[in-house]
Automatic annotation (TrEMBL), chain A:
This is Uncharacterized protein. The chain crosses the membrane at residues 23-49, 69-92, 112-132, 138-155, 162-178, 184-204. The lineage of its organism: Bacteria, Pseudomonadati, Bacteroidota, Chitinophagia, Chitinophagales. Keywords: Membrane, Transmembrane, Transmembrane helix.
Automatic annotation (TrEMBL), chain B:
Residues 15-96 form the Winged helix DNA-binding domain. InterPro entries: WH-like_DNA-bd_sf (IPR036388), WH_DNA-bd_dom (IPR027395), WH_DNA-bd_sf (IPR036390). This is Transcriptional regulator. Coiled coil: none annotated. It comes from the Bacteria.
Amino acid sequence: MNEQQHLDSLHDIKRIMERSTRFMSLSGLGGVGAGISALIGAYFAWNLLDGKVLPNRGGGIISYSGDSVLTFQLFLIAGAVLVAALGTGFYFTWRKAQAQGLRVWDASARKVIINLAIPLFAGGLFILGLLYNGYPGLVAPACLVFYGLGLVNASKYTVTDIRYLGYVEVALGILALFNLYNGLLFWALGFGVMHIFYGALMWWKYERNPTA
Amino acid sequence: MNPIGNLNKVFESRIRLGVMSVLMVNVNEEVSFNDLKELLEVTDGNLASHLSTLEENAYIKVHKGFIGRKTNTTYSITKAGEKAFKGHLAALEAMIKFNQ
């Protein structure tokens, strides 16, 4: 074996080690799509809250408890955002995996999903508990903190940028907790603007030149 | 000094090298035959023969189990395998430095 072959085998080792532990097909464009869905949802929620309920409280979602119609409408918006965000995220990730000739659903994808799902599931139940006890104002900070922790947890098995996105989400969640009247604003910043920012960054780093 | 002498003959095959790379970074995970097949993009027969070579050298351990009625064979690296693989990497590194 000559030197080139040895360099090739080192390259192989590195590539296989990375591919067997990290899910690299995650698409930045999917993140941008999810962010746009979140901003559209936040816009509708803002209109609902600002116009009808809290004209003098800057659109915060702190004191609408008791208005079950509004709660239901907000739930519908949240559900639609979730479906649209997951849909675009999965679609672009699937497309990227196809382009790379990889399977979307492999061992590393399973690890990402499981490690993201555990904090998210806990967060979901926690938020239901908040609503049950009449603390809707804490929903936005709780969303951000649990989602951020989920990202930090899952980032071990995918691109490292996700870890930093997770830190930012947690920080925004904590800030939101001390600015409850601007909960929706922080929510839009975390789920909308940050997804678009990190999605664009990931696209710029990994997808702009697909051959690299 | 001849650094090439330290290279491990067992790892000259790209597939065996690939198997060791995967098992090296998934120490506490169960890596199945199908996972390896997908990651390394090889045929069943080819992979099976390379795996048995690694097993004969006691570099990997084979665990036979079942998922329902289907057999599920998983693999893990042994202490000896870890040592041999690290030695091989060190030899590759030494050789590249030696040639520069």
